[in-house]
Design brief:
mainly beta, 156 residues, ten-stranded antiparallel β-barrel
């Protein structure tokens, strides 16, 4: 009886996690709409962002170009629980925390750190129709100046 109860509990937990991820409006592939975006000089532009479920976590992969034309591939895997998880591929960030405000499936807040220090914040807002999203990031550049980027993405 115990084994069956444990198996049923695990199955229900897995289904609940899958249902939460399935309702995540960020899931899927997003392509940069450069005409609607605003980048400061020298900013890296993420041309494509992909959100996908990996077990009970989310994997975010960003592919872009630096100002000098070098390819960039950044990955983060974690939960939207406000805890920090490692980032790979970004020399300016080594961990990020994602969280979704309660009762707001259209908005996500992201905090980025480097060496334990907060270096940027990001707010992601998915449009009501789910076909686009606006990513507003604020941080400091390599010279210590505050910069803000507004990137608009269309769902593929």
């Amino acid at each position: 009886m115990k084994t069956r109860t444990i198996a049923l509990t695990m199955a229900l937990c897995f289904l609940a996690a899958a249902a939460c991820l399935a309702s995540d409006l960020n899931m899927g592939t997003w392509k940069l709409n450069e005409a609607k975006s605003k980048f400061p000089p020298g900013a890296t532009k993420n041309q494509k962002v992909v959100y996908e479920a990996v077990g009970d976590q989310v994997k975010v992969a960003l592919d872009g170009m630096t100002a000098d034309g070098k390819s960039v591939h950044v990955e983060w895997t974690g939960k939207y629980d406000g805890k920090f998880y490692p980032v790979t591929g970004d020399p300016n960030v080594d961990e990020r925390a994602y969280k979704q405000p309660i009762n707001n499936a259209h908005t996500m807040e992201i905090t980025s750190k480097k060496g334990g220090k907060v270096v940027g914040t990001t707010r992601v807002v998915v449009a009501a129709d789910g076909k686009s999203r606006t990513v507003t990031s604020t941080g400091t550049n390599s010279k210590g100046a505050k910069v803000t980027t507004v990137a608009v993405y269309d769902k593929e």
